[in-house]
Specification:
This protein is α/β, with parallel strands linked by helices. Helix content is 35%, strand content 15%. Bound molecules: ligand P1T.
Length: 380
């Protein structure tokens, strides 16, 4: 199947042998009857597996060109499961520009358990090898990065990971499988905050992992069941429904993202615009190589880099809602330094470019003209 067919049917053939319902039913149950101990129909207890979650996990595996999908109660719960593959003394080389919550999980939780993290600028992959040693087990990359929209060369990272026999995990939240499929580029694990584009309607918190390797899948399923950070059947249903329109929504997010990036780039009050589709973007060539289009996330700074200008701007917006999160049908605006990335110390934040005037837009699928008019009045 090709991508647009997979979003609707991938992994979902014959989902309801009982009545033939077209959508997978919501199995709102914690447990399943057994005729004799072990005599069950494939499901024993819903922490281990639930038919609605299984349908979603199969759909996720299908769109990411993987074999095994796993769904969790949040994106951070999915990342947490990956880190539980490690043991004290192991080291991780991670992107330095990444979601603040991922950074907080690494630094404030897993460092306590003896795992060491190196946060590295990966726009030039040649830096990465300086941080790899005999204890390195995992290369963690986010591309495009949150909130700077840097692009990291996934194939080049995969070559490095294979050379040193370490796992490569890619947070694919900003791009989604519509724009790039990291497993095809050599990644071992693809991770999502399904809260964002996969759900697509700002009504659910969820995370996911997809892998190809059976042994790795078994370890992750073990952690999923043993730690228990699963999502419920109603939320699984919502994300299954979201995935069915992923391709249509992403197409419009990309069109609107382009129009807004170009508008901002031509505005006298704007200093920098970060969107990988602009030819001036430092990683534009890699973006063109590994992505099918450039997405709906756009960040920018205003001239003078004054915090109060940024705050005034987001307060004046009328169609863009000032809110955390991204990837829904509605446009959102955020101020990373005080919102999504406040958990990163100011010095570290600014090293990655997250300055006080930086604003991040999650461009929705409304009419372009209305969105641009809103930005225009707020900048005015
Ligand atoms: O919020 P949650 O579903 O737990 O996902 C965490 C997460 C992981 N990775 C990336 C790239 C993310 O953007 C997120 C969540 N991000 C936001 C809430 C935000 O506003 O950036």
């Amino acid at each position: 199947m090709k991508f647009n067919t997979k979003t609707i049917h991938g992994g979902l053939l014959n989902v309801d042998p009982a009545y033939g319902s077209v959508m997978p039913p919501i199995y709102q149950t914690s447990t399943y009857s057994q005729s004799t101990p072990g005599g069950h129909k494939g499901f024993q207890y819903s922490r281990s597996a639930n038919p609605t979650r299984t349908a979603l996990e199969n759909s996720l595996a299908s769109i990411e060109n993987g074999k095994y999908g796993l769904a969790f109660g949040s994106g951070l719960a999915a990342i947490d499961a990956v880190l539980k593959l490690l043991k004290p003394g192991d080291e991780v080389v991670s992107t330095n520009d990444l979601y603040g919550g991922s950074y907080r999980l690494f630094k404030n939780i897993f460092e306590k358990f003896g795992i060491k993290f190196h946060f590295v600028n990966m726009q030039d992959v040649s830096h990465i090898e300086n941080y790899i040693n005999e204890n390195t087990r995992l290369l963690w990359i986010e591309t495009p990065t949150n909130p700077m929209l840097n692009i990291i060369d996934i194939s080049a990272c995969s070559k490095i990971a294979k050379k040193y026999n370490i796992l490569l995990a890619v947070d694919n939240t900003f791009a989604t499988a519509y724009l790039q499929t990291p497993l095809d580029l050599g990644a071992d694990i693809v991770m999502h905050s399904a809260t964002k584009y996969l759900g697509g309607h700002s009504d659910v918190i969820m995370g996911s992992l997809v892998v190809k390797d059976e042994n790795l899948a078994e370890q992750l399923y073990f952690i999923q069941n043993a730690s228990g950070a699963i999502c419920g059947p109603q939320d699984s249903f919502l994300v299954l429904r979201g995935i069915k329109t992923l391709h249509l929504r992403m197409q419009r997010h990309c069109e609107n993202g382009k129009a807004i990036a170009e508008y901002l780039a031509s505005h006298a009050k704007i200093e920098n615009v970060y969107w990988p589709g602009l030819p001036s973007h430092p990683n534009h060539e890699i973006a063109k190589k590994q992505m099918n289009n450039f997405g709906g996330m756009v960040s920018f700074t205003t001239k003078g880099n004054v915090m109060t200008d940024a705050i005034k701007f987001v307060e004046k917006l009328k169609i863009f809602t000032l809110a955390e999160s991204l990837g829904g049908v509605e446009s959102l605006a955020g101020h990373p330094a005080s919102m999504t990335h406040a958990s990163i110390p100011k010095k570290e934040r600014e090293k990655a470019g997250i300055v006080d005037s930086l604003i991040r837009l999650s461009v929705g699928i409304e009419d372009q003209e209305d969105l641009i008019a809103d930005l225009k009045q707020a900048l005015g």
